[in-house]
Structures are given as C-alpha cells and as structure tokens.
Amino acid sequence: MLSVSIDKSIIIWAPSEDGVWMEQVRVGEVGGNLLGFYGGKFSSDGKSIFGHSYQGGFHIWHQTVENENLWSPGVIIGGHFDEVRDLAWAPNGEYLLSVSADQTTRIHAPWRRSNDESDDMVTWHELARPQVHGYDMQTIAILSRYKFASGAEEKIVRTFQASANYIENFRRITGAQDDAEGDDLLQSMFPGFQF
C-alpha cells in the first residue's frame, strides 16, 4: 500500500507478521515546494513509484535490483502548469529560463549523457526551479551564466545568483566547460579551496 503526505513524503506500507501495517520505505523531496504530494501510484510491475506534487511537480523512483528496500530517483518530465509569461535564452544557447503565472521561475537545459556531444545523447529537461514566488511571474532577464533578474506582479525586481550545489550540478548535467565565471563564484564562496 502507498500513502502520500503534505510533509513531502511517499510511504510504502506492508503488513508485519502480526498483521500490523508498518512503514517499509519512505521516499520524497527535501526543500523547494511549499506543499507535499497530492497523489502517488505504483507502476504496473510494482518496481517504480510515480508521485505528483504542489505546483505541477512530477517525481519518480525506481526500485534497485540489489535491494528491494532501496529506491532511487529517476529523471522525469517537468515544466510550467500555467501560462508562460516570459523566457530568456542564455547568450550561447546552453539553457533557457522561463517565468509563469504558476508563480515559478524554471531553468531548462540539455542533459548530456557521458559528455557525448552527439544529438542522440542529448535531451532537454527542467533542471531547477530557482524561484517559487507568491505572485504570478511576469519577466526574466539573464545577467550572466549564473545570475538572473525576475519581476512579478507586485512590481519588485529580484536578482538571484546560483549556489555552489547548482553550479556543480549544472556542469555535471550539461557538460559545461571553460567555466571561468563558475570557478570565480565557487572560489568566492569557498576561499582557499581548490576546484
């Protein structure tokens, strides 16, 4: 049996030898969305769990072959669930930023498997939601590779700079190279550390 919760978790329950239902596995999300899961479902073979959450987020976990109690997250589709109000391409075309009436800012970028540059090994995915806001988003502008400005209905412009975790993941997923700006940001965040 599967249950979903507003605490951002999905739990698999199974009866014990005594007939008492006990938690067997817990999967979920940390941070990001304000509310948890609205629903979840097993795949037909019972080896994958699909969940849907607040603001149109989809999530999937697959049971590992080595351990039936270990579930690893998978790559899934993503995108806005309401009208897109503005978008901005990075100057070199390596990613796309979009804002929407769904009150989010999202980054879409290519996932390069094994850093292979061939077209058949590249697919585009929602990479991050750097802004979940309380007003409908209206406008977006890229300031540099790791900085952007956005504006919402309440007419305040906010600027954002990528975190170290995002920079590392962006490099790993997109295969970004010659990244002097990322090196400088990481060095300013962690002085004396060699990247």
Overview features:
single chain; 195 residues; mainly beta; four-stranded antiparallel β-sheet; 46% strand
Describe the protein in words.
There is one protein chain. The chain has 195 residues and is mainly beta. 11% of the residues lie in helices and 46% in strands. The strands form four sheets. A four-stranded antiparallel sheet has the order 4-5-6-7, with no helix packed on it. Strands 8-9-10-11 form a four-stranded antiparallel sheet, with helices on one face. Strand 1 and strand 2 (9-15) form a beta hairpin. It is globular. The N and C termini lie far apart (45 Å).
Helix content: 10-25%
* Helix and strand composition category: mainly beta
Question: C-alpha Rg, in Å?
Answer: 19 Å
Number of helices: 2
Distance between the termini: 45 Å
- What is the general shape? globular
Order of helices and strands: EEEEEEEEEEEEEEHH
Helices, strands, pairings?
Elements: E1 2-4, E2 9-15, E3 21-28, E4 37-42, E5 48-53, E6 57-63, E7 71-73, E8 84-89, E9 96-100, E10 104-112, E11 122-132, E12 137-144, E13 147-152, E14 157-161, H1 164-174, H2 180-189
Antiparallel strand pairs: 1-2, 2-3, 4-5, 5-6, 6-7, 8-9, 9-10, 10-11, 12-13, 13-14
Describe, in short, the structure shown.
The protein is mostly beta strands. The chain is 11% helix and 46% strand.
